[in-house]
Amino acid sequence: MLTLYQFNSCPFCWKVRSLLNYANQPYETVDVNPMEMKGLEFTDHKKVPVLTDGDKVIVESATIVDYINDNYAHASKDAESKTWTDWVDQTLIHYLTPLIHPNLTTSWRNFGQIMQTEQYPWYKAILIRLGGSIVMPMVAKRLKKKYTIQDAEAEYLSAINHWASNGLAGKSFYGGDRPDFVDCSVFGVLRSGDKLGVVKTAKNSNADFAAWYDRCYPIMSR
Ligand SMILES: N[C@@H](CCC(=O)N[C@@H](CS)C(=O)NCC(=O)O)C(=O)O
């Protein structure tokens, strides 16, 4: 059995889930407690996602999706796939935290939504919501500095336009008539922020993106 150790709002984790869902591969999820990373005692790697496949422990989302694809999903890739998956990991993903946690008020509201989908006892949920909405705006500030993001929303929408114009380029999916490895990667990171405003913002700004996202959803989200 495959087990994914995750946070439900983690873009790296959703990248993995979207590929597993695409492959119709059964798996179970374990929500790791972000305050103490409880649940990951069996590995020295203290970040999610972590995937176990029987006795095997696989860490780092890029390695995990390659492992899933080689062993289970067999989604197609083309010569440009790596350029796009690198763009997802090195550019697109960095806009999410500044958009979802720009300040304490928005972060608190979004954590309310996030906690609805996580499996914690109520007292832990309150601690995580409070701690998270204090810490995450600081993380967002640090990320903006590190990746020289000035206007997170404008730059994010420009990235969405880049994906729609140059990735989809008039096709139903990046993969053509069927989604492929790259579609799962782009969809996955955005799916993590589905109820947190980022998908709505992108859909409102780009109709081709909106249609693509809605085509992917029943295939990759579960
Ligand atoms: N390079 C890693 C990044 C994973 C990552 O940053 N995960 C975050 C959650 S979105 C995490 O586990 N943070 C907890 C921590 O750093 O203590 C990957 O691609 O798997």
Topology of this structure?
Layout: E1 2-6, H1 11-22, E2 27-31, E3 50-53, E4 56-59, H2 61-73, H3 81-90, H4 96-100, H5 104-116, H6 122-146, H7 152-168, H8 181-191, H9 198-205, H10 207-220
Helix pairs in contact: 1-2, 1-8, 3-8, 5-6, 8-10, 9-10
Bound molecules: glutathione (GSH).
Glutathione binds at residues 7, 10, 12, 37, 46-49, 60-62.
Short précis:
This protein has 222 residues and is α+β, with helices and mostly antiparallel strands. It has helices spanning 11-22, 61-73, 81-90, 96-100, 104-116, 122-146, 152-168, 181-191, 198-205, 207-220; strands spanning 2-6, 27-31, 50-53, 56-59.
Put simply, the count of helices is: 10
Distance between the termini: 17 Å
CATH class of the largest domain: Mainly Alpha
Q: What fraction, in percent, of the residue positions are helical?
A: 55-70%
Number of strands: 4
Order of SSEs, N→C? EHEEEHHHHHHHHH
Mean pLDDT across the residues is 95
* Spatial extent as radius of gyration: 17 Å
The low-confidence runs, each spanning 5 or more residues with pLDDT under 50, are none
Largest sheet: 4 strands, mixed
Into how many domains do the coordinates divide?
Answer: 2
CATH-derived architecture of the largest domain: Up-down Bundle
The unique ligands bound to this protein are:
glutathione
Content of β-strand: 5-15%
How would you describe the shape?
globular
From the structure above, extract its key features.
single chain, 222 residues, alpha+beta, Glutaredoxin, Glutathione S-transferase Yfyf (Class Pi), Chain A, domain 2, 2 domains, four-stranded mixed sheet, 10 helices, 58% helix, globular, binds glutathione
